[in-house]
Design a protein that fits this description.
heterodimer; A: mainly beta; four-stranded antiparallel β-sheet; globular; B: mainly beta; six-stranded mixed β-sheet
Chain lengths: ~110, ~110
């Protein structure tokens, strides 16, 4: 157990619906990352926060995706108007000096 | 841009046999290297990391890896595997406290 928690663990939604995921990181780590992992692939970077500031966003993060980290604590990732291609595992990680510690992930299935 | 290539998508081995999972990377600057393990339906667990210093790094569960700068490789090894080592293994690279770039993963299957 890395101390990083994600909620929910599983989410099934219909195409076109909005979904929101939450990540609660280890409290002393000020860096927080979101990744997406599709079946049989390695995780791909989505976005990165240092405290409450969103410092980098991947081109994978279309305008239907938005992430926030109010007050530099927990973070949320919202996907609007979900598409079947959004089905994936969404992983949150928080950063020490160099390594990252991952949560258990949220598996999203869009039907 | 950084990239990571894991040369084997699947590696089957017998229990108690040695194993090597291969990883090559490309980067224009100094990098930090990591191996993570992922068990089914779980997040990633850090096995070991190379930041600087000795090129042979030891991690959890008896795994070790060797950083070879001239060959841009960071292969993972274990002298004797157990059934419980069955999992997906990911090699990753970063440039400091930045995003991780992962390889495609290697599925390690241990046969009794």
């Amino acid at each position: 157990d890395t101390g990083v928690s994600q909620d929910p663990r599983h989410k099934i939604t219909k195409r076109g619906q909005n979904v929101t995921f939450r990540c609660d990181p280890i409290s002393e780590h000020n860096r927080l990352y979101w990744y997406r992992q599709t079946l049989g692939q390695g995780p791909e970077f989505l976005t990165y926060f240092q405290n409450e500031a969103q410092l980098e966003k991947s081109r994978l993060l279309s305008d239907r995706f938005s992430a926030e980290r109010p007050k530099g604590s927990f973070s949320t990732l919202e996907i609007q108007r979900t598409e079947q291609g959004d089905s994936a595992m969404y992983l949150c990680a928080c950063g020490g000096n160099y390594e990252q510690y991952f949560g258990p992930g949220t598996r999203l299935t869009v039907t | 841009a950084q990239s990571v290539t894991q040369l084997d998508s699947q590696v089957p081995v017998f229990e108690e046999a040695p194993v090597e999972l291969r990883c090559n990377y490309s980067s224009s600057v100094s990098v930090y290297l990591f191996w993570y393990v992922q068990y089914p339906n779980q997040g990633l667990q850090l096995l070991l990391k190379y930041l600087s210093g000795s090129t042979l790094v030891k991690g959890i569960n008896g795994f070790e890896a060797e950083f070879n700068k001239s060959q841009t490789s960071f292969h993972l090894r274990k002298p004797s595997v157990h059934i419980s080592d069955t999992a997906e293994y990911f090699c990753a690279v970063s440039e400091g406290a930045q995003k991780l770039v992962f390889g495609q993963g290697t599925r390690l299957t241990i046969n009794p």
